[in-house]
Design a protein that fits this description.
Blueprint lengths: L5 H11 L6 H10 L6 H8 L3 H14 L7 H17 L9 H4 L7 H17 L13 H19 L9 H15 L3 H32 L1
Helix pairs in contact: 2-7, 3-4, 4-5, 4-9, 5-8, 8-9, 8-10, 9-10
Amino acid sequence: MKLVDSAQVAHVAEEARPLPDRASRQIDGWLKGEGDKTLGALVELFGQKSFAILFILLLGVSALPIPTGGVTNVFEAIAALLALELIAGVEHIWLPQRWRALQLVGGRRERFIEGLVRMISRLERFSRPRGQFLFGHRLTNIVFGVLVVFGCAGAFFAPPFTGLDTLPAFGVVLLSLGMLLDDFVAVLVGFAVGAAGIALELALGKLVLELLQSLI
């Protein structure tokens, strides 16, 4: 009898698992469907997937290379609060009523969201389930939350009108996509992009500080 390699069995079993629905398709369907288009409505609709989807939605606005009029700081603060809840092991997302009522469509925000959905759709073409055994654990969620907090901080404290918030925010988007689609490679890429963005901010900040000190 021919022995079957256990690694091959695990690989086949991983590929046989159903693919998660595309995040872009879920968000687009929600936006085009009926009902409220508030942050609270999104949380109620997506349940346990809400953390990753909300991080994509909230930080995706900062990740887009377009003027945002300062609205991104609000989104980054909300995302940081959600990340702390994830770290604490909260199963049902809590948000202040004022934030739950925040409209995600209409005016410029609708254009932001439409551009975000297109960006996510392009990224999803390169993603597939990889390293699925690493997901769905308490420790994984804690690490995910900690990385999102750092990414939010990097985007929030980036100097205004410099575009330096793009890389940390984009890193959170990639990281969240990886968590949503069980793709460990996407998680690693997201971590690398976010870390590079924060490192760039620190390097430029140090350079500016040294320049100011030389002028004094």
